[in-house]
Amino acid sequence: MARATHTSEAADIIAGTGSATALTSGRQQSSGFRLLRRLQRERKAIAGLVIIALLTLLAIFGPLLAPYHPDADDFGILQAPTLEHPMGTDSFGRDLFSRLLIGTRVSFSVGVLAAIAALAIGGTLGLAAGYYGRWVDSLISRAIDLLWAFPVIILAVALVAIFGAGFRNVVIAIAVAYIDDFARIVRGETLSLREQDFTMAARALGARDDEVMGRHIVPNLVAPLTVQLSFAVGLGILTESTLTFLGLGVNPATPTWGLALNEGRDFVRQAWWISVFPGLAIVVTVMALNLLGDGLRDALDVRGVSDV
Description:
Elements lengths: L1 H21 L1 H18 L1 H23 L30 H37 L1 H15 L3 H12 L3 H11 L1 H15 L3 H8 L4 H9 L4 H24 L11 H8 L8 H28 L8
């Protein structure tokens, strides 16, 4: 009798999936519409998104928009900002505006690639630790705790010092430094989601582990990971600028915001613009990413939020 009861319940669940599937597209459209309405009310998210969109366009089309070649050094040394050179020239006589436009692509590329790599590796580790538990969780958690024990910049400096400078090594070093952030978030969310009724029902119906994780757990991780990704990109840009300022960044011949800061530190008194303009670029970019992340977090957190 008990077996028949459980069989009937399972049949009801399976039968219910048909009607649920029929309503999936409508529900997705409705939830997407509600999300857009909440985002429209988040002015800080809109402001951050506009700034990031403009900076992204500059990163893509910067070489086409630059009025001069970034390495051209025949404009006069330490010239103050003028109409011809809106951000002045540096200590080598190069146009600072052109170099910052080119540097936008490099700094953005490092931040985005490092954040995506940290998301992929840290998310996978956190998902495995949270879902399987036991010795898998213990092993991964101890490794993550080890990374967590080191300050980000110290860990990144150590990795670059070991493997050498360069674009690829800087991206790897920054990604490794932020793996623990994504792993902790994913592990915590997975520990909660694996005990929910829909995941337990899927396992009871014979779904494989990869199906349960791919269909029922990963989609519920999109919101927190999207918010964390926006923060991680900003932190990655800031870390790259710090490494380059310390002489451990990308190729010294490649113009970046951190390199401009490094070159201007000896001329702060007589040529303030060399340090101020790249510093403002870093501040505005990181602030815009933080505004976007805060706005996304508030929009995706539907607790206590009315859509009317």
